[in-house]
Amino acid sequence: MAEKLAPEKRHNFIHNGEKVFEWDQTLDEVNIYINLPPNVHSKQFYCKIQSKHLELGIKGNPPYLNHDLTCPVKTDSSFWTLEDDIMHITMQKRDKGQTWASPILGQGQLDPYSTDLEQKRLMLQRFQEENPGFDFSQAQFSGNCPDPRTFMGGIRSD
């Protein structure tokens, strides 16, 4: 049932008409997907994930991305992989349930409508996680959706 509430599509970060990366989020994570350039050996790529900063690129060249993050992440449980010509960066949110409007601070922000849809989906993910016997995939909110991180005393930590 929880997979029904997984991100349905990735958001695109476009700069000067070019797709820089795609991204999505869950209650726990923000994922970034970057198409790798052809004919570059995997050992040449690097990615440095810091609590509030992300830097990545090809060794010996200026960074492809070198930006502050919208919100802090847990570096000990964040990582990156290369698979099928895509760099997949998984960053563990420090504040579980927080809705990110973009991974990069001040860049590529989702519009208010898309941000609201993300918040609603994360709220339903929270309900699903806290009540695993129920199916919230068809649930809807009327009016404003509460913040999934703080609603009813906040997210319980196990």
UniProtKB/TrEMBL annotation:
One of its GO terms (cellular component) is cytoplasm. CDD domains: p23_NUDC_like. Coiled coil: none annotated. GO terms for molecular function: unfolded protein binding. One of its GO terms (biological process) is response to stress. This is CS domain-containing protein. Pfam families: CS. Gene3D superfamilies: 2.60.40.790, Single helix bin (1.20.5.740). Residues 16-104 form the CS domain. Transmembrane segments: none annotated. InterPro entries: CS_dom (IPR007052), HSP20-like_chaperone (IPR008978), NudC_fam (IPR037898). PANTHER family: NUCLEAR MOVEMENT PROTEIN NUDC, NUDC DOMAIN-CONTAINING PROTEIN 2.
